[in-house]
Amino acid sequence: MILPRGYSRIQALLVDPNPNTRRTVYRMLMQAGIGSVAVAVGVKDAFDLVRKQPPDIIITEYSLEHGNGLALIQKIRTSVDSPNPFLPIIVLTSYGEINNVFRARDFGCDEYLLRPISFQTLIGRIDYLSKKEREFVMAPVFIGPSRRRRNINSHATPKRQNDSFSSNEENARINDLNRHSSVRIAPPIRLIYKKVFENNRRVDEALKTVESEAKIFRSMQNEWTGNSIKNFESLVQNIYTNYVGSSNGIKTVQDHCANLRATVNQFGNPAITSIVKSLIRALSFDHLTPLGMEIITKHIEAMHGIMRAQNSAESQVLSSRIASELQKAVRIIKRNASHAAPAHNDDEFSAP
After folding, report:
1. What is the SS3 assignment for 35?
2. N or C: which end of the chain has fewer CB within 10 A?
């Protein structure tokens, strides 16, 4: 199978640390008529390429250098530095365990293909993705292409065909989801299809859609992160009221810190994640005391300060400065407490 001539306009990114399998897939893509194929071996260099020159499609191995394909998918889907969170992503691997398939799906991959793979299967799936792109779901619990398929081609199995929604059922589902402020369904952008089969005007329209939908998505991520911080703040206040001086209290706070870290990391906010990590390191107490509560409060203030930053670059600079100030504040608070001195002097460090 040779792809239509329009695929010469398509740029692919192939991520695979194994030189032999990487070379094989690279040759398949070039033989099929893909315009250009960039290669990477790990999460960092792959994401750097995505930021510098966003590809039209990504094919990644599950196991990568310094991480795995899931980490790469998460960075593309959620990072504030990702230029296009809607990129089609194929996982191509020899890891066929069902748990790996489900995890990749839940992290937001479009397709999961197993090695060894034929030329026909790989190229056919790329062509299928360009024509059958699914809606993109943006929700606190899932970010990625819709996990339900519809309009499956005639080669699908009867079971898979029966799984697809009718048009009315699908529209009803999307309308119901969009009534909730925490969920958004973006329609298929079909950038690959428009590059291959349509004119430049339609391609430009698709690129503008990517930009506008990404902007909406970033706004939703900030809202989710802000709500998570507020919920954490409320939980800590309740815990302090009920468990002050208790070892159970500090353990509960530490558990909520771990949950907050996982949540904000999922929402692609490294600045807030760094502050939560600082708080986890600072909570080295046996009991929840006024001293511990003061340290927690300073970190929460820092998180709110970062959320007020206007853009990602500003928040990164702000988080570095605040993290340094927090460490200084923690040392001052602990030193004053050890000497049974009054609370620290606010002039000794800058407020977040």
Report:
1. coil
2. N
63-91 pLDDT per residue, tens: 998 889 999 999 999 988 899 999 999 99
Q: In what order do the strands lie in the sheet with 184-186?
A: 142-145, 136-139, 184-186
**Is the CB of residue 34 less than 8 Å from the CB of residue 7?**
yes
Q: How confident is the model at residue 155 (pLDDT cuts 50, 70, 90)?
A: very low
Q: How far is CA 338 from CA 114, 262, 283, 342, in A?
A: 59, 33, 16, 10
Q: Do residues 61 and 50 make contact, with C-beta atoms less than 8 angstroms apart?
A: no
SS3 content of the chain, % helix, strand, coil (to 5): 60, 10, 30
Instruction: Give whole-number Cα distances, 155 to 12, 38, 111, 158, in Å.
Output: 25, 31, 16, 9
H/E stretch holding 31 reads: helix 19-32
Residues 96 and 114 sit within 8 Å (Cβ to Cβ) = yes
Q: Is the peptide bond before 19 cis (omega within 30 degrees of 0)?
A: no
10 Å CB burial of residue 17 (0-12, 13-18, 19+) is middle
Residue closest to 112 by CA, chosen among 155, 75, 144, 84: 144
**Angstrom distance (rounded) from CA 62 to CA 68:** 6
pTM: 0.77
